[in-house]
Automatic annotation (TrEMBL):
<dbReference type="GO" id="GO:0006629">
    <property type="term" value="P:lipid metabolic process"/>
</dbReference>
<dbReference type="Pfam" id="PF26178">
    <property type="entry name" value="PI-PLC_cat"/>
</dbReference>
<dbReference type="GO" id="GO:0008081">
    <property type="term" value="F:phosphoric diester hydrolase activity"/>
</dbReference>
<dbReference type="InterPro" id="IPR051057">
    <property type="entry name" value="PI-PLC_domain"/>
</dbReference>
<feature type="signal peptide">
    <location>
        <begin position="1"/>
        <end position="23"/>
    </location>
</feature>
<dbReference type="InterPro" id="IPR017946">
    <property type="entry name" value="PLC-like_Pdiesterase_TIM-brl"/>
</dbReference>
<keyword id="KW-0732">Signal</keyword>
<protein>
    <recommendedName>
        <fullName>PI-PLC X domain-containing protein</fullName>
    </recommendedName>
</protein>
Amino acid sequence: MSAQCCILAAAFLLFRLPYYSDALSCSSGQCQLREVCTSSVDCVGGLFCSSCAADGDTTNTCHRYKATNVTSIRGGLPFNKYSWLTTHNSFSIVGEPSQTGPRVTFYNQEDSVTDQLNNGVRGFMLDMYDFLDDIWLCHSFGGVCYNYTSFEPAINTLKEMEAFLVANPTEIITIFIEDYVTRTQGLTSLFT
């Protein structure tokens, strides 16, 4: 039995070695769909690194989830009759550089807002706060945005969405604003 086990293990390793040695050549944002990766930063934009143990796959590879544009399936319905792929805390992106010092908060997304849009996300949940004399996207601690929970000025994310809509004028984006802005006309000024 142990000889059979050794033969099977050797066959498994021989079968898998080229796959792993090929993976060593891709890293730092160069890995393509289904190539072996060690983390999501190895994968090109719009892909993330994971395995699917439920499918018996324990090897991390670059994956993509892309939604179907529901209006292309059956157009002409009222807006409230469609379901849109939506991301929670769409701005809370792993690896997003901090503009205010070290960040101590949780993350919800691996893709940039632009990559989320390119992957079919059409609903964006954004938490907006008064912070540093501007309106920022932020997690809060006790309802207050701090340097260590902030992400970026809201205008930056809105400009990403605007660029997508200019390039794709028939697309629809829904923004769900969790509004903690207290200044008068704050959101009106932001969207103007």
